[in-house]
């Protein structure tokens, strides 16, 4: 990935210098060992700040959407003849490009508003698995060498395999190369174990209703309603989320379990055919709620009922935006 | 009168915890799935003998995430007051609090228990709770920075009892009358001058072990003079506007009061709020004086390092590093302080 990083810096620099984009959204080194953090490069001279490796976690499509919408809002206050376009460059691996496809299909902005810097992906380090591998210790220093991770903690040194701390969604990723790109960077990444994509969901489906409900309530009881999951999600872009509507207020803000469950249920159901399994919601959750299991179940439903994989291509019609005569309807309750 | 001190053998600690837990509620760091959390110790739930610090800040035991203040009944005409909410729990012990978190109690006391305003809900819980802190003889994290914000690995602020690991033994210092209430559990081996000396050595070496040093006290002048400054444009862009930092923080204490009604039964509840949320200062008119994440971040930072200092003295940050570790996009408060100091 080292070459990818270098090439990425060059391409970003060129795009900024040639004024093809106003900003490049990418990743820079974080302040903690083995972390990267979103960065917004506006000056070609800063392009060398960009990094790209297994420490890059967030799906940057979220920021592309936010920056373009904020710009559009701001332009409303400018005289029509003085309005400016804003073009946003986005460093995008497979899942990020799928999110961009969804946003484009949902007419959130024009294709001309974004320049996609497509990068191959071998998966990213799941912050929670990484912490577990350290067994309660905290990394003071760390480095990735090939497929090995070496970490220094206050208690000593630790080494483990990179593949053991890759996020679950990365291990079984079907789209680890961009589905849409303006600038293709690097060679294609080798395929992942996509055939095992629904293994966990298959097992979950076999449980009884009571067992599934028990698991759902257990997981949701951890939620502290910080909304990091929703805010990190590129498909969660409602201007005002239903949990924040106050006239009238639909959902209570106390620690009432039903309120938390309603929030998570509705967010999950809003993701049918719109979740690309980028894992951002899971990675940002401070309490380790297993959101993926439920999202993945709906993803599987969308595939089985409508032969749809979210954001897989610009030509696919999103399942909830269309109607076909042979749409399955046997799930509709018939008294 | 000299402070009561006891020495206990390492192996005796679990027994002491068990005996206290048998007599009253005892909350201690407990392993819960992948997280270490402060929880009630009971049958099948044991306090961790060795831990770094808990994921959640223990402020929630005095200032819960959601708390009923009063109840009322909806009648044909208007509402009828149905009484203030009473704390039904008895005496309790918070065991194994880190000195930084114990300091957060002392810092929150300044707000919730001040001369002109007393919060009965907070104060009652605080009075009923004995805080047994555990010194950081070994510094838990590389991100710890308590010494930069007025604390130390052996700080006694906010604690009633302070335990320090001396190697084979624990030194127990009973700092307050409330703390002395637990004396009977700690045997009768009083500490000698040698134990005091050893503790001082441990305190000094632990302080040296703290890797992060930030000029938190030196930026006050900048903050006083620069409510408007281009620097405030540089923090918030990647912020997700989630509440993780404020909910994890041991000193963040902003709340929202709501009425919840089910049929005729109403209750007034106080819930944690977060200055990071867009709804935080939204007014009834729809206007929001903090329209973007920029103003929200300035507020969070100013509140901790300027306003709280002006109002009460200490910085409203204890250097536990929870926000540094938990922020999903690595907004690092240590870096913000360091960056400001260079301006």
Uncertain stretches of 5 or more adjacent residues of chain A:
none
Helical content of chain A (DSSP H or I, runs of 4+):
25-40%
Biggest beta-sheet profile of chain B: 7 strands, mixed
Query: How many angstroms does the end-to-end distance of chain A come to?
Result: 57 Å
pLDDT < 50 stretches of chain B: none
- The averaged pLDDT of chain B comes out at 94
Relative strand content of chain A: 5-15%
Give the chain pair forming the largest contact, with residue counts. A-B, 42 and 46 residues
Classify the beta-strand content of chain B into a percent band: 15-25%
Q: Which geometry of chain A do the CA atoms define?
A: globular
Largest sheet features of chain A? 5 strands, mixed
Task: Output the strand order for the largest sheet of chain B.
Answer: 1-9-8-7-6-2-3
How many domains of chain B? The number is 2
- Report the order of strands and helices of chain B: EHEEEEEHHEEEHHHHEEHHH
Explain the overall architecture:
The complex is a heterodimer of chains A (335) and B (343). Chain A starts with a helix and ends in a 29-residue tail after the last helix. The longest helix of chain A is centred in the first third of the chain and has 16 residues, at 2-17. Chain A contains 11 helices and 8 strands. Helices cover 33% and strands 13% of the residues of chain A. Chain A has 3 domains: 1-124 and 169-195, no CATH class; 127-165; 198-321, no CATH class. By secondary structure, chain A is α/β, with parallel strands linked by helices. Chain A is globular. The mean pLDDT of chain A is 93. Chain A has helices at residues 2-17, 61-75, 94-105, 127-133, 168-171, 199-205, 209-220, 228-232, 257-269, 280-284, 292-306; strands at 23-29, 36-41, 88-92, 114-118, 139-145, 148-153, 156-161, 183-184. With 343 residues, chain B is α/β, with parallel strands linked by helices. Chain B folds into 2 domains: 4-209, no CATH class; 220-341, no CATH class. Chain B has 10 helices and 11 strands. In chain B, strands 1-9-8-7-6-2-3 form a 7-stranded mixed β-sheet, sandwiched between helices. Chain B has a 4-stranded antiparallel β-sheet with strand order 5-4-11-10, with no helix packed on it. The longest helix of chain B is centred in the last third of the chain and has 20 residues, at 293-312. The A-B interface holds A 30-32, 35-40, 58, 62-63, 128, 131-132, 136-140, 153-154, 224-228, 230-232, 244, 246, 252-256, 283-284, 286-288 and B 33-36, 51-52, 55, 64-66, 138-143, 209, 211, 237-238, 240-244, 247-248, 256, 258, 260, 269, 271, 274, 277-279, 324-326, 328-332, 334-335.
């Amino acid at each position: 990935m080292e070459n990818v990083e270098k090439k990425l810096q060059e391409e970003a620099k060129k795009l900024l210098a040639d004024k093809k984009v106003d900003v490049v959204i990418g990743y820079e080194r974080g302040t903690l060992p083995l972390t990267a953090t979103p960065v917004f490069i506006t000056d070609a001279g800063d392009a060398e700040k960009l990094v790209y490796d297994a420490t890059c976690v967030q799906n940057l499509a979220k920021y592309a959407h936010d920056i373009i919408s904020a710009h559009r809002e701001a332009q409303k206050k400018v005289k029509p003849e003085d309005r400016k376009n804003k073009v946003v460059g986005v460093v995008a691996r497979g899942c990020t490009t799928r999110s961009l496809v969804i946003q484009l299909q949902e007419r959130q902005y024009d294709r001309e508003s974004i320049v996609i810097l497509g990068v191959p992906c071998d998966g990213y380090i799941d912050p929670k698995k990484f912490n577990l591998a350290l067994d309660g210790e905290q990394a003071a220093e760390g480095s990735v060498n090939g497929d090995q991770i070496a970490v220094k903690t206050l208690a000593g040194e630790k080494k483990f395999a990179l593949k053991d701390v890759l996020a679950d969604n990365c291990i079984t990723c079907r789209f680890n190369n961009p589905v849409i790109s303006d600038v293709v960077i690097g060679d294609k990444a080798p395929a992942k174990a996509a055939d095992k994509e629904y293994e966990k969901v298959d097992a979950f489906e076999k449980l009884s209703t009571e067992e599934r409900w028990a698991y759902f309530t257990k997981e949701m009881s951890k939620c502290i309603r910080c909304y990091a999951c929703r805010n990190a999600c590129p498909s969660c872009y409602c201007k005002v989320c239903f949990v924040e509507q106050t006239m009238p207020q639909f959902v209570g803000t106390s620690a009432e379990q039903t309120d938390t469950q309603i929030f998570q249920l509705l967010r999950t159901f809003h993701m049918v055919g719109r979740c690309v399994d980028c894992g951002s919601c899971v990675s940002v959750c401070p309490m380790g709620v297993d959101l993926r299991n439920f999202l993945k179940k709906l993803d599987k439903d969308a595939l089985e009922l409508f032969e749809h994989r979210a954001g897989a291509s610009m030509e696919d019609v999103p399942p909830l935006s269309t109607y076909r005569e042979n749409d399955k309807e046997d799930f509709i309750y018939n008294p | 009168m000299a402070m009561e001190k006891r020495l206990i053998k390492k192996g005796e600690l679990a027994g002491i915890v068990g005996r206290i837990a048998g007599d009253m509620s005892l909350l201690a760091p407990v392993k819960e799935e992948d997280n270490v959390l402060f929880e009630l110790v009971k049958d099948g739930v044991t306090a961790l003998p060795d831990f770094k610090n808990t994921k959640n800040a223990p402020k929630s035991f005095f200032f819960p995430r959601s708390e009923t203040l009063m109840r009322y009944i909806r009648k044909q005409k208007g509402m009828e007051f149905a009484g203030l909410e009473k704390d039904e729990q008895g005496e309790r012990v918070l065991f194994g609090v880190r000195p930084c978190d114990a300091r957060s109690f002392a810092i929150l006391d300044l707000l919730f228990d001040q001369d002109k305003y007393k919060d009965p809900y907070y104060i009652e819980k605080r009075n009923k709770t004995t805080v047994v802190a555990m010194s950081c003889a070994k510094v838990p994290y590389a991100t710890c920075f308590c010494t930069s914000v007025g604390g130390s690995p052996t700080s006694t602020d906010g604690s009633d009892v302070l335990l320090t690991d001396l190697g084979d033994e624990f030194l127990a210092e009973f700092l307050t009358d409330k703390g002395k209430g637990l004396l009977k559990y700690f045997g009768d081996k009083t500490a000698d001058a040698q134990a005091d000396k050893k503790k001082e050595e441990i305190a000094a070496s632990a302080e040296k072990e703290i890797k992060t040093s930030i000029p938190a006290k030196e930026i006050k002048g900048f903050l006083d003079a620069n409510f408007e400054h281009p620097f405030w444009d540089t923090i918030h862009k990647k912020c997700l506007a989630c509440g993780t930092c404020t909910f994890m923080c041991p000193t963040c204490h902003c709340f929202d009061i709501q009425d919840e009604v089910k049929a005729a039964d109403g209750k007034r509840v106080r819930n944690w709020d977060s200055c990071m949320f867009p709804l935080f200062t939204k007014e009834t008119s729809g206007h929001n004086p903090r329209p973007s994440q920029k103003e929200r971040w300035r507020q969070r930072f100013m509140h901790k390092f300027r306003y709280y200092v002006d109002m009460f003295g200490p910085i409203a940050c204890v250097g536990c590093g929870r926000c540094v570790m938990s922020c999903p996009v690595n907004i690092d408060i240590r870096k913000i302080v360091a960056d400001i100091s260079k301006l």
